[in-house]
Amino acid sequence: MSQTARSSVKDRILEAAKDEFSQAGVSKVTMEEIAERAGMGKASIYYYFRTKDALLKAVILREYEEFSRRLEEILPTKTSAADKLRAYEEKRFSYFNKLMAFKLVELAPSLKVKPALLDMFDEFARREMKLIRRVIQEGKENGEFDIVSVDRIARAFLHLVRGLRLCRIREARGKRIGPETLAQLRRELDLVTGIFLRGIAGTVRLAPAARSAMSRPRAGPSRHVAPHPAPRDQAVTKPRPSRDSTGPGRDAGRHMEQRQETRQRP
């Protein structure tokens, strides 16, 4: 059998396994059921995958490779670094959702499957760390992110979004994560991602007036104006004196003179 034909058969098996895992969950699916869905004998399945654990890993890896390919397509685009991080989290959540359809949280008691999956997920995290670092480095270089250490920020972002997912898995306590929980997780991820991006935002995308305001020195905690404002500054907040010598402008000028005299007293 040619390499192309072998690859085609493996793809057929993986697609059948994914469908079975999604419908019934990994723990309840048998190799016989996967073979029946793929339209081949059980022996043919074992020829390509010696155990169900190996088949599960292959299915998860194939889904992750598709997720990685979509992420790589985002990197060269001209969108902002912040939008790229949002797109990463959106696509990562979609991948997580697919895995939850396999009912992987039900595998927690399995001593055979769990270590293999954890090792694979750790490798995925290392690959995602590299991608996130590239995006944050880009944001730092173009002034979009005001940060010092790219590595620390990338690691913090990865741990933040990964931690939320792991919390939901732990809270499930071996039970299936339902649509309501997934929807809540989606909202939490959007929230923390927005907070994180605002926290590292630079001034590159601010309007000129906003940049000017941010560059001014901050006032002290007990006052909002300078202790001795110049007359020009006072004119900004007070009515301009009238040229009429008998109008309210004259009274305002007289009050100003009185205040100046008061300051000059010892």
Low-confidence stretches: 108-112, 206-266
- The CATH architecture designation of the largest domain is Orthogonal Bundle
The number of strands is 0
CATH top level assignment of the largest domain: Mainly Alpha
What is the string of helix and strand elements? HHHHHHHHHHH
What level of helicity do the residues show? Answer: over 70%
| CATH superfamily placement of the largest domain | Tetracycline Repressor, domain 2
Give the count of structural domains: 2
Helix count equals: 11
C-alpha Rg, in Å? 31 Å
- Beta-strand residue percentage: under 5%
Overall spatial form = elongated
Description:
- With 266 residues, the chain is mainly α.
- The chain is built from eleven helices and no strands.
- It folds into two domains: 1-50, Arc Repressor Mutant, subunit A (Orthogonal Bundle), CATH 1.10.10; 59-205, Tetracycline Repressor, domain 2.
